[in-house]
Structure formats: C-alpha cells, structure tokens
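[recover] target loaded
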C-alpha cells in the first residue's frame, strides 16, 4: 500500500470541481485517508515546488497556489502514486488525454487543477510537509475486499 499527496489547486476549488475530482479517485477504488482545506502560506508553496525555483513560470505558480484556498488529500492504494498520476494526466490540460482529470476539465498549462506526487519519495516528502502524522488515518475500507483480488496484495 502506498499513500500519495494530492492537492486540488485554487482553480479546482473556485470552479466547483472538488466533488467531481474526488469522485474520480473514489470510484477507482482508492481510499481517502486525509483531507484538509487551507490557504497556502508562500513559504510552504516555495518549499513544495522547490524543484521549479528559477524557472520562468515559478513566480506565477507561487502566486496562483497562494491566491485562494486549496484542498489537500492523502490518497491510499496499491501503487497509489502511479495510479493517481495516470488519473491526473499530462501537465498541460490542452494536451492531456481525454478521460484524465486534466484532459476532461481543463485547457491550461499552469491552471491545471491538481497536484499529485510524482514518486514514492516525493510522496513521503510532500505528505510530511502538508499533513501532521495524526491527520493521516489508518482505517479499513470495507469495500476494499471487492476492489482488490487477494493476489494483488504484495
Ligand atoms: P506536474 O504538476 O504535472 O508534476 P510539473 O512540471 O511538476 O508538473 O510542474 C508543476 C506545476 O507548475 C504544474 O502542475 C503547473 O501548475 C505549473 N507549470 C509547469 N509548467 C508550466 C508552464 O510551462 N507554464 C505555466 N505553469 C507551469
Ligand atoms: Mg511535478
């Protein structure tokens, strides 16, 4: 089991897409183990996106993610990091495949609605950055026995 960090960015919240996006994860069979809305402090945004510091879009990205509330989600499942990235689709909504979240709901390169950790290491770093340990809940999802074959489990 893997847990990944998802952030519904200000455009998703403002466009009223939170429910539809969460639905994509739930209907896939993934488990929501943490959720919180917040205004993002600039320092936290800079730390989260540190790998992009110095790129031309960086100042606009920081302005964007700090401009209005975001919804943080921690999503758990087998291979959750890769599964979520696949559900999210390519960075630019205009190029993302139909059927993905970005491909179905957006057109923009920057205002692309959602962040998902890109590796298991990023997920660990980012979950620690955004959530307190006690905010990540360990609970049994009863439907899980119908979402996974016993042989799916490592
Ligand atoms: P990702 O979110 O698909 O992992 P990254 O390359 O890690 O994409 O970029 C982080 C975020 O920075 C993107 O989700 C997007 O909001 C923004 N971004 C990336 N590239 C551009 C760009 O070329 N123009 C404007 N914003 C960008
Ligand atoms: Mg990225």
């Amino acid at each position: 089991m893997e847990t990944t960090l998802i952030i519904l960015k200000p455009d998703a919240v403002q466009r009223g897409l939170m429910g539809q996006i969460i639905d994509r994860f739930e209907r896939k069979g993934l488990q929501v183990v943490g959720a919180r809305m917040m205004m993002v402090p600039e320092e936290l945004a800079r730390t989260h996106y540190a790998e992009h510091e110095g790129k031309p879009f960086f100042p606009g990205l920081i302005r964007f993610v700090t401009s209005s509330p975001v919804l943080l989600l921690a999503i758990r499942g087998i291979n959750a990091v890769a599964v979520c990235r696949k559900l999210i689709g390519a960075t630019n909504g205009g190029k993302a495949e139909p059927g993905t979240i970005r491909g179905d709901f957006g057109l923009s390169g920057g205002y692309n609605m959602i962040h998902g950790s890109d590796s298991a290491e990023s997920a660990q770093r980012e979950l620690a950055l955004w959530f307190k340990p006690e905010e990540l809940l360990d609970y049994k999802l009863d439907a899980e026995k119908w979402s996974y074959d016993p042989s799916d489990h490592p």
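[recover] notes: Strands lie at 2-8, 31-38, 70-77, 114-116.
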